[in-house]
From TrEMBL:
InterPro entries: Flavodoxin_fold, Flavoprotein-like_sf, NAD(P)H_dehydrogenase_qn. Residues 3-170 form the Flavodoxin-like fold domain. One of its GO terms (cellular component) is cytosol. This is Putative NADPH-quinone reductase. GO terms for molecular function: NAD(P)H dehydrogenase (quinone) activity.
Amino acid sequence: MTHALVVFAHPRPDSLTAATAARARDTLVAGGCTVDVLDLYGEGFDPSLLPDDEPDWADAAKEYSAEVRAHMARIAAADEIVVVFPVWWFGLPAMAKGWVDRVWNRGFAYEPSTLKGKRIRWVGLAGGSAADYAVQGLDEILDRQLRVGISEFCGITDATVQLIYDTLTEPQVVDVLR
């Protein structure tokens, strides 16, 4: 049986981001997956990278904080990771970026990677239109950063980035796992 980790980052539990994460969870469960939902705000995750969780370039086997090790275990248990986030300032919000900075760490996510063979889907909810993002190449920048800069760097080759546009003018929950 496939196990998925659905991660979402939004301060409001009644947000479109939370509803989209819930739809992703429901779709995965309906498809026969077991699902672990990680609400970064709801669980009180601290996105600040402090010395306990900073990579040690002299020691790839460094033991990180208990909070980070618990998050690493949740990722390790998943075959598939779905990260749902609002696109703020044309990138990940600080909470999600801090999660990557702290948890996707040396000796776990890279040098060496324990994430090879996993699948990841990045789902961003963007306020602007697809045309606006395309004109500036912002969709391509997000894709490259998330798919190549994070996922592939960490050994995950089955990585996709999906942007849901016009969420400010046409807010609706869509099936993101089609």
